[in-house]
Amino acid sequence: MKKSKIKLADVTTYKFGGYCNNYYEINSEIDLLSLDYSKIDIDNLFILGKGSNVVFSDDGYSGTVIKPNIDFIELSPGRKSLKLGAATFLPDVARFSKENSIADLEWLIGIPGSVGGAVRMNAGAYGFEFSQHIKTVTLFNFETAKIEIKDKSYFEFSYRSAHNLENKMVVSVDLNIDNGDSQLIQKNISNNLKQRKLTQPAAIYNAGSVFKNPTENSAGYLIEKAGLKGHTIGGVSVSDKHANFFVAKKGASSQSLFELVNFTKAVILEKFDIELEEEIVFIGNFT
After folding, report:
1. Could you tell me which of 140, 135, 148, 88 has the C-alpha nearest to residue 113?
2. Is there a catalytic annotation at residue 99?
3. Fewest beta carbons less than 10 Å away: which of 49, 75, 76, 160?
4. What are the pLDDT digits (tens) for 126-148?
5. Which one of the listed residues 25, 160, 172, 256 is annotated catalytic?
6. What residue ranges define each of the domains in the chain, with the CATH number in brackets?
7. What is residue 202's predicted lDDT score, i.e. its pLDDT?
8. Which residues make beta-bridge pairs with 129?
């Protein structure tokens, strides 16, 4: 584990972002405990998962980026819980659930994020939310430089949101699990993948859903109804396949995405008096 300089475009799915001079990859709890926190400004600290819902400025990021590489899946001896490392890829959890006949985790197959990100965003699809499976979460507190274990209630989970995570990093998660039918799980996985292929763009440069769904409405439906499918700013477009996905051409800028997001919000507010809230996160300087 060491500090390095990295181009942020190389660690995000949109492939946007300039350089960060204070980039750390964390491979274990020991790495966390050995960091020199006198050199880290925790007020300008960003925890990076798979980079599937984050957009860094083209100017880069002057703060510190910490990327956990704590990647494991452990089934408890009594099959009562599943322990997952923060960097574990969510589709890998779905595949593990099929191989080990664990119920109700197959919905994770199409979410291109990490376990840590699923906690922070309370990831959800097909009527499930990640929080409903959680038993406890192991955190690292950057203010105290200590490991903490918190139960589900601590996070006050809501739609696409978790609380009390400021200056904290998810290290691992323990899930409550039940036995399932591996054939049914495989059928659900296949159906979920088929549905996503039919309804979501296959473009490389995107970050999943751009906006959270408003109460009793769909962001994609509102954007489509407003006639914004295909609308483009500087090489970034509202997808023709699913209006809540914005896709970028190679060489497009994060500033263009930022402008398209804000343009879309303004149109939806004017037409429907609904203020959309971003699901993706903008980090750094945008104008």
Report:
1. 88
2. no
3. 76
4. 889 999 999 999 999 999 999 99
5. 160
6. 3-68 (3.30.43.10), 73-198 (3.30.465.10), 201-283 (3.90.78.10)
7. 66
8. 124
